[in-house]
Amino acid sequence: MSDPVTRVSILRCDATKFALLREMMLEAEAALRPGIEAMPGLLLFYAGADEATLSLINTSVWDTLEHARQLDTFQPMLDAGKRFVAAGARFERPIMHYTALWRFGPLA
Are 36 and 74 in contact (CB under 8 A)? Predict the structure, then answer.
């Protein structure tokens, strides 16, 4: 079995937009979760917010790069991205895909 791939999508915003975008991220789960959970190869998915850096992330772990890239064409995710941009988000591009160099911990 190959090492899993961690996909990281980062958005940044101005301080005045952070609370709104954080709330939008919380609300986006309902629309995104069913389709993402049904995708082959998903191992873990989480979203996070860091007010200190005015950033939010979607991070997911997949069994292969091919499976991680399913999100590139997942229409509900693309639609959500457009809503976030319209509300003031700036996405870092390209989206990053990391293969593990080493790992440890209970889930390793």
Answer: yes
